Amino acid sequence: MQIKDIIQKIEELAPLPYAEGFDNVGLLTGYPEEEVRGVLVTLDTLEAVVEEAIEKNCNLIVSFHPIIFSGLKKLTGSNYVERTILKAIRHNIAIYAIHTALDNSFRGVNDMICEQLNLKNRKILIPQQESIKKLITYVPKNEAARVREALFAAGAGSIGNYDHCSFNLEGLGSFRGNEDSNPTIGEKGNTHFESETQLNITFAKHLESRVLKALFESHSYEEVAYEITTLENVNQHIGIGMTGELDQEMEEKAFLGFVKEIFHTGCIRHSELLDKPIKKVAVLGGSGSFAIEKAIRAGADIYITADLKYHDFYKAEQKLVLADIGHFESEQFTKSLLVSYLKKNFANFAIVLSNTDTNPIKYF
């Protein structure tokens, strides 16, 4: 088993193209072809976590947060980031970070929050823009079925709860090959007319290389005519934050007590209570002040997130309750998600849940 094999499976859950532009995700240290002895899963990679990996004979750390976030100009051990990286390199331990790629996954961070709260009817709070692409290609009529099925097999043609979606037009195509051409239909130097099917099919942007590979391998033409465009349509299964509903509405203080117990938080900072029952809940793990207005527009009764500043609480405007449960607390179940996912896909391999407490915030 090589590091790249583990990475490939992780990126099926959370493809890196969906990470936010400011983020630093992927393999941060180590070689993809290195043989894996064991995998340690953590929320943060610190020196103590690297020590734990050494102790447990794990040479790959899968971390939610990236230890390298902005550019490093030197590695002298002058701060906790440099010391962590140096220790990992010294002991030949690879570090892989997933962060906002998992935030934007439908089965990622926010789904885990909803799972803990037993929320139903889950929907993405902020669907990601420009995540859907469209392929238009032209295929000999008698080959259209084969090419279409190859594209479906590559993951194209899936829209929400439907797959094998395409649109097909029949027409007459023409081409003429020069003396260096090697046409599979017609003769070089002569204009050829062919009954063709124009095939239109959408796909998630992270599948582009796979879809094009399927197109080229299944198409008979020497030169395949195609075009790819990025659509403005939103993908309801990719994006950050999530909304869901309780089976039964709860009184505000009772719900806050429920949240405090589930997330083992030292306290919950919240906006003014509105004396209204809680039924629809919006969540966003980590720093989520940017989505307050989205939560209001979604009709949420309460918005659970972290890292809210003083003036952020004014934005509630008596339209919902804002609840700051803490950054670590909101994301703490993420590593259990990753461990469960990896164990399911690598049943006979050492996948270890880190027991190092990486929460830098303490409560008195």
UniProtKB/TrEMBL annotation:
InterPro entries attached to this UniProt entry: DUF34/NIF3 (IPR002678), DUF34/NIF3_bac (IPR017221), DUF34/NIF3_sf (IPR036069), N-reg_PII/ATP_PRibTrfase_C (IPR015867)
The UniProt record lists the keyword Metal-binding: yes
Molecular function as annotated in GO: metal ion binding
SUPFAM superfamilies reported for this sequence: NIF3 (NGG1p interacting factor 3)-like
Record's keyword terms, sorted: Metal-binding
Positions contributing to a divalent metal cation binding: 65, 103, 327, 331
Pfam family, one: DUF34_NIF3
Record-level GO cellular component terms: cytoplasm
Subunit structure: Homohexamer.
Family, similarity comment: Belongs to the GTP cyclohydrolase I type 2/NIF3 family.
Protein name per UniProt: GTP cyclohydrolase 1 type 2 homolog
Species whose genome carries this gene: Salinimicrobium marinum
